[in-house]
Amino acid sequence: MSMFENLPAAPTAKKHPVTDTRHGIKRMDDYAWLRAENWQQVFQDPAVLDVDIRAYLEAENAYQQTAMADTESLQKDLFSEMRGRIKEDDSSVPSPDGPFAYGTSFVTGGEHPRFFRVRRGGAEEQLLLDGDAEAGSRAYFRLSGANHSPDHGRLIWGYDDKGSEYFKLQVRDIESGKDLDDVVENTGGGGAWSAQADGFFYTLLDENHRPSKVFRHGIGSEQNQDRLVYEENDPGFFVGVGGSKLNDFIFINIHDHQTSEYHILAADDPDASPKLVAARETGVEYDLHEGGDVFYILTNADGAKDFKIVEAPTDAPGRENWRDVVPHAPGRLILSHMVFAGHLIWLERQDGLPRIIIRDRASQEEHAIAFDEEAYSLGLQGSYEYDTEVIRFSYSSMTTPSQQFDYNMRTRERVLLKTQEVPSGHDPDAYVTRRVMAPSHDGTPVPVSLLYRKDTPLDGSAPCLLYGYGSYGATIPSAFNTNCLSLVDRGFIYAIAHVRGGKDKGFSWYEDGKHLNKINTFKDFIAAADYLAAEKFTSFDRIVAEGGSAGGMLMGAVANMAPDRFGAIIAAVPFVDVLTTMLDDTLPLTPPEWPEWGNPIASREDYEYIASYSPYDNVVAQDYPPILAIAGLTDPRVTYWEPAKWVARLRDVKTGDAPVLLKTNMEAGHAGASGRFQRLEEIAFEYAFALKVTKSAKI
User: Fold this and answer.
1) Which fold has domain 18-83+425-693?
2) Fewest CB within a 10 Å sphere: which of 153, 208, 214, 235?
3) What Pfam families does the annotation carry (predicted)?
4) CATH code matching the domain that covers 107-276, chosen among 1.10.10.410, 2.130.10.120, 2.60.40.10, 3.40.50.1970
5) Do 106 and 676 form a contact (C-beta atoms < 8 A)?
6) What is the pLDDT of residues 443-480, one digit of tens each?
7) Does the annotation count 670 as an active-site position?
């Protein structure tokens, strides 16, 4: 390719063929050796990585650095622009809780958040935790958060300094500012306080990174003395733990991607045993919040595909006592709910757009908070407090910076608390945001959100970054994104394809893009590219496709299915070796993922279907566009060897001279770099690649 001239020879991975036979079907994998046999240890200590694997990854890093060397100045410009749009000394609006209000802030130049509180109605901040000070000189550091105790005397805080998402919890005495001797290791990152603040509940991760046990830690004791409260023996389920607003209950939530189960115990009884709410039933999900003497439960039980809300007594919350309070309405997807002393609220999506509904618990009167733009995002932030009339929510669109509001549920008064500042300036009137519909292969209209400058020519000449995800029911919001303005201001159209596999158009939109319907996700994305080219928003050779994680699998699939539709592809931590991973039940996410993708161990049909699209298994001798793959060495979600193997096979099999680049972050995991500005450097690298391959910037 002319934009990658004078490249040295690309690294060539050794081949050590390994065969695997399932359901009478034989597969050969030349690059299975790239998976370290001691991968669990590598996540904890990257230094123990096999020398041959490290040498290959470092050779790939050197190759991509050479290929992208001419963009170094551009990367710095992009980084500077994106950093210039961030208010460096930003602070959240503190959220009230009893005598205090709690918030987070950043200092100028700081990478990590600071946690603070103020006296209610006061202004003087009390610093609780300084993320930059705790990070020190560590190469990687990520805070999992900070949770204050019900008596406001202590703080649970956690951190990961490997990128492997094994979090260490510590307890801080707020008055002295000193950490207690309590240290709890290998946790999921958070803790739920007991009512008396004399201990907390947490999930322990096993050696395969599965949260399968809940323990109670008593303040002042060693971790080996912690009481096991609950253990989940089915490796297909994750376990989480949390508390209620009234501090009455501890909730233990067991779930995979389609089934859930709750156990509850009294938060004021350190020896309490958990009690089952409703036994798990395959395909039935439920989520509960305390509302005084009742639980309000969001569920898809009884065929409520788009969910309904029921209530049940707290002393008898079993399924037999569930009573509908917000009935199921097909096409209106209820996403989440919250409960307060006088009000029940929920966030729903209908016709692709969100709105917040508020119901007075006494009068049953309802009203909605809605907005008028073609595409926008709403976030429901709620409150620490139960006995309050005020909730907090956020609003943004692709042209409108994020706004935070306090909303009085009784008076309906809306108070703007904060508008996201863009220090370098932002003129919403200079941009256009639109939502168009791209007809897919079966005629289904696929929503595509667009952002571009008003002066961008719509004659097919504009480059386009087309983003997609489409798995787990996740919806990509049409929210404000300061980073993408660096592309849009250079003439790009920024597009989000809301493909099947998300819940953008209801729960059926998810079902139609999962398991044995997964192919719809890929065809929807290709249809979005077809539409944008046909309508002269862009042209195929000007489209840069981008996706990460399961969206990276989408990138690998469309690269195989329609390489001529894309000028380049960016696949971040891409889940591309789907069949091998779903056949390996020792990996952290495999058993809980079977409802999403299918179980190829148990089912030949699932095996053959996954094999039909798994990107690694479907690389063929054809021309591919330039591809950038990004990996994290300590990533427990999409292991580094998936993109490494994919790149090796692409190089070996493909025709044409378009380069395939692999960048492995040797000191980070799935989320990439941990600091807010370090992360911008990675985005600047990806955007520089997009600008380089479309020749949209001076290099």
Assistant:
1) Rossmann fold (3.40.50)
2) 153
3) Peptidase_S9, Peptidase_S9_N
4) 2.130.10.120
5) yes
6) 999 999 999 999 999 999 999 999 999 999 999 988 89
7) yes
